[in-house]
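Hey, quick one: can you model this chain's 3D structure?
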Amino acid sequence: MQEPADGWDDPSQATNAPGTIAARIMATRPDAGLYLVATPIGTARDITLRALDTLNSADVLAAEDTRTLRHLMEIHGVPLRGRRVIAYHDHNADRQRPLILKLLGEGRSVAYASDAGTPLVADPGFRLARDAAEAGFAVHALPGPSALLAGLTVSGLPSDRFMFVGFPPSAKGARQRWLRSWFGIDATIVLFESPRRVKDLLKEFCEIDPGRSTVVCRELTKKFEEVMRGQASELAEAIPEEGLRGEVVVLFGPPEAQEVDEATIRADLGVALAESSVKDASALVAARYGLPKRDVYALALALMKEKE
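Sure thing. Here's the predicted structure for all 308 residues.
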């Protein structure tokens, strides 16, 4: 597989410890290695030229969904030429990973594409890339489409500091604990959610902070793209009971510091302490009002002593 000789991105410049198998492979096959290929999240023309070059010239192709990759290659006229296409997804990753590492060890170039978007972002490719790197093989990123970044770009929410938290747990109790684990972080939060569960997610978030600036993006880059902006409570009310259709990205803006008196804090702590430990209750209230955790924790301890 050949890459453009631009000088600054020549894969032959990859560093590997001398004497290792990976180093010997790189000496004879400078193009060998794992290539993580970002693929379109909706519009097929969002593929990059470098991605097409790599898909055309890689020795072996791997994909989260081989049918999606084959269709994408057909759209862009990239021939398969009898090359092997390996399925690599959540259900077979442990079985297929040794095979891909073996191919890398033979000096092959392997292009891995997620179902849509950038590999390793809510994608099973993480352990593959990690194990390949630990074995000394070259790992190359081919940047391109990303639902995470597309959603952040169109949201209008602060983008100087953001955190991606993946998919929420499907069970209600686990999801509520998951929401409380990050909702007080001073950053824009980005997550993926099932279109059928997005209304439930927002309703549960409203139990914590109904006024939070919230954006729901649906079908990004596709024909029926839709971006809904408002407070969490407004969007929870606007979304139909049956949920939405299509791929969904949800974003929550950073929490806003609020002016609050001690009586209000005590009242909220009293409610939280009835359901949670002192540590969890104080963290919840501190995050809700943007207060120092240490101060709220001390107040929670005082409340507990008053009840004794």
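One thing worth noting: Residues 262-307 form one domain.
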